[in-house]
Amino acid sequence: MFSQLHVPSTDQVKESVGSLLQFLQTTSGISGAHTVEFYTQDVWKNQMAISPDSVLSIFSQQQNHYRGCKDAPDISRIFSPATKHLVNLELFVEAAQYYSLMTLGLCTPIGELCEVFATRRKKKPDKEIKTDQFMNDKKSHEVVIMSQLVDGIASIYNVNQVIDLGAGKGYLSSYLSMRYDLKVYGIDSSHSNTDGANKRNRKLKKYWQVYKTDARTTSKAQKSDHKNETLLPKSACQDVNADRDISRHRMSDLRFKKSLVSDSHVSDEISLFSDWTCNMASHPTQSTDTVDTSDTTLTFLDILPAGAVELPSMSESVSKVLSDLEKEQRKMENIKRKKLKESRVYSPLTSYVTADTELHDIITDLEESIMVGLHTCGDLAPNTLRIFVAKPEIKAVCSVGCCYHFLTEQFENVEEECTEGTWGFPMSQYLKEKCWHIGRNARMSACLALERAAVGQGLPTESLFYRAVLQVICKEVYGITQRSYSIVPQNKNIQKMDQRVGKIFSKSSSFIDYVRKSLKKFRQDDLKLSDQEIMGYYEKYEPRRNELEAFNRLKVFLAPCIEALILLDRICYLREQENLAWSGLVKLFDPVKSPRCYAVVSLKQP
Questions:
Q1: Confidence band (pLDDT; 50, 70, 90) for 30?
Q2: Whole-number CA gyration radius for the chain
Q3: Which of 5, 186, 271, 372 is the most exposed place for a label (fewest CB within 10 A)?
């Protein structure tokens, strides 16, 4: 079955990784620079031999002329051998395009996967769900596409259980359960997320019941003409003349011989009949028994489908007037039965998952399952793959990672010994042997979205400029730096301060307000500076704003390349395992709607 899928060989993957490493090493000065210290370290002057306007111009052209190149570019001509400054912008852009996943040709088209899975997929009820009623457009796009893929995989292995790691608010879990009738456990480390998922769970359950009722009503209305025909399904009343007026039998014929029933109980009986009528319309039953049509009397038991009630209890209930105690007992029994009948949309669980997590401790009824993750944060994505490899119950995995800046790296701190353990990067033995590390700033760059930036979205230029100028003030006036140094800085007067501004920009009315709020967060005396002095810094660096904009455009070009290395490392890790039938990268989503659009998919032998 998997022979039908496009799959690059392990040697091809490693060859691509090798050339990608050379390009990333060459461009590490750009990807590894922190825009917070753009002005304090004079980044543009120290790394560029081109003008900011040329970068902004070529980036604007790429919005309409994004093209890949077939042959690997000569990266040795991008930077000056003597000064290491960027001198060939066109070649830089060409190389960045070449080392993206799509140009390297290492992805399996989603269409091929769907075509293969379609031959194994069981026919399921056609239940359309309007996801826009409880998801935004982005989440709806992601959930619908990923759910189709997961359902196809479930059909291959004939499994019904799905484990959603990093389930968050439970959108994917809910949809898998409602749309495809899969038994889903959504696991998240945040109690607040789980609590929110439970609340959303109850709302979705109500929504889903109403939705199904509306769907049934619509279906029945379509089948009925405008001549007052009964809406009872023919399959449920196939031996009853549909033209007969059932309502005229309610009082006269719905009775039992030798039974005296109070008026109140007759009302209960009629109510029960009405409830049954609605229920039978929703759940038609097939019956092979025949009714003697010569008898014109239509009794209550003649209408009821076989097995609908227990005859002894029904006979007892109508042969006497129920006492208050018996009524209360019956009420409690009905409540218990209703609660047992009701099922959750899915099961949200709270647990912090690592590579060593024992799933049986979290899921007591663990069975053969598929493990999924939609935008699992940091190390959770690689740990999802490790759990998949280690646990025989997990037959397949579909993981879309995100938040690369939260990945832990084994070889990032060069002054420390490389300790053994579980790290987010690298996963593969191939990259571990090279002791390769990316660095946090480069991983931050990997989170940028080229496709969004190309259409004018995704780059908070104003807030980045505010932050870079604020850093100049912090250094020159207060003697502090935002970054934590791994090596003691030469200037002993500079304090180390690992604090972040956070979301102050969105809450600030002006640059002055932004600076004062930030300084207070840093526990500094903002009254050291007057408003005029603060605006003096702003006016000094305003003419150099285009440098910061242009530099961030260059980082955006490198984002797909760094992401490619992270994802290819995961594929290499899976290829190094012995018990897997197929592993590949699949582009699931529209990158403008969902920048983290690649899924790592791996399958064991069915």
A1: very high
A2: 33
A3: 271
Give the closest residue to 103 by CA, choosing from 68, 72, 74: 68
Per-residue pLDDT tens digits for 239-273: 333 333 433 344 444 343 434 334 444 344 333 33
Average pLDDT over residues 147-156: 92
Each residue's pLDDT tens digit, 392-430: 999 999 999 999 999 999 998 765 555 667 899 999 999
| pLDDT tier, 295 (very low <50, low <70, confident <90, very high otherwise) | very low
Q: In what order do the strands lie in the sheet with 347-350?
A: 107-108, 580-587, 598-604, 394-402, 369-377, 161-165, 183-188, 347-350
- State whether residue 500 is helix, strand or coil: coil
Q: Is 247 exposed, middle or buried (0-12, 13-18, 19+ CB in 10 A)?
A: exposed
| Contacts with 542 (C-beta within 8 Å, 6 or more apart), sequence order | none
pLDDT greater than 50 at residue 64: no
Q: What is the C-alpha separation between 22 and 551, in angstroms, rounded?
A: 21
Q: How far does the chain reach from its first CA to its final CA, in angstroms?
A: 10
CB-neighbour burial class of residue 350 (10 A; exposed 0-12, middle 13-18, buried 19+): middle
DSSP 323: P
Q: Are 441 and 33 in contact (CB under 8 A)?
A: yes
Strands 580-587 and 107-108: parallel
| Residue count of the chain | 606
State pLDDT tens for residues 447-502.
998 888 877 776 778 999 999 999 999 999 998 875 543 333 444 444 444 467 88
The residue extents of the domains of the chain are 2-99+404-575, 108-214+346-403+596-604
Enclosing H/E stretch for 174 = helix 171-180
Residue linked to tokens 């526990």: 523
* Cβ atoms of residues 170 and 344 within 8 Å: no
- In the chain, the largest separation of any two C-alpha atoms, in whole Å, equals 110
In CATH, the architecture of 108-214+346-403+596-604 is 3-Layer(aba) Sandwich (3.40)
Give 154's contacts (C-beta < 8 A, 6+ positions apart). Answer: 160, 162, 180, 182, 370
Residue partners of 239: CB distance under 8 A and separation at least 6: 287, 289, 290, 291, 293
Report DSSP letters for 98-150, one per residue: HTSHHHHT-EEPHHHHHHHHHTTPPP-------GGGTS-HHHHHHHHHHHHHH
Q: How would you class 422 by CB atoms within 10 Å of its CB: exposed for 0-12, middle for 13-18, buried for 19 or more?
A: middle
CA distance 102 to 489: 42
CB 114 within 8 A of CB 149: yes
- Residues 6 or more apart whose CB falls under 8 angstroms from that of 411 comprise 418, 426, 435, 436, 437
- The one-letter amino acid code at 520 reads K
pLDDT at 386: 96
pLDDT per residue as tens digits for the range 343-397? 445 687 888 888 888 888 899 889 999 999 999 999 999 999 999 999 999 999 9
Distance of CA 358 to the CA centre of its chain: 23
